[in-house]
Please model this.
Amino acid sequence: MNRGTKAKVDTGQITVAVLGLGNSVLTDDAVGLHVAAAVERLLREDPIAGVTVLTSTRAGFELIELLAGFTHALIIDCLAIPNPVPGRIRFMDLTCLSGSARLVGVHDISVADAFELASTLGASMPGTVEIYAVEGEDTQTLSEEMTPALVASVPRLARALHARAGEWVKALSPPPQGERGF
Model:
């Protein structure tokens, strides 16, 4: 999986970052990493030009480096909330991020603050960002195994993200040279 090494050349094409966040040794907190790995497998079977899979155990300032140069981003993380429905997938945006340590920024800046800082610094960040947070059952136990509900959520979310990235690329990329649409 690519951890941030990518060409940052503006070609006028749609570029999509699929960013899985998580901690691989904190049970369900690893879900973002597992979803990213599953999306990467799907991309090997059904490639989509312009889509790059990234992973990180952190967020905050690191997001600027990871996401700069992409036009679109799909971010996946675990959501730790009271009374969760384990495996339920919640759609979030930059204005609504409570429940995720990496997205909110307990020891770092939040995702929203990272995007704001990047804008202030003139960094080219994705203009379209979708965040998918999977409600975790256990985010405290040291284990490389996720709970069954989160394991079951991985293929479903990976397929949805693969399809979403494909929709963006297909709908927003200019036609190849020599083709004209009417």
User: Anything to note?
Assistant: Strands lie at 16-21, 51-56, 72-79, 89-92, 128-135. Residues 2-9 have pLDDT under 50 and may be disordered. The radius of gyration is 16 Å. Residues 148-172 form the longest helix (25 residues).
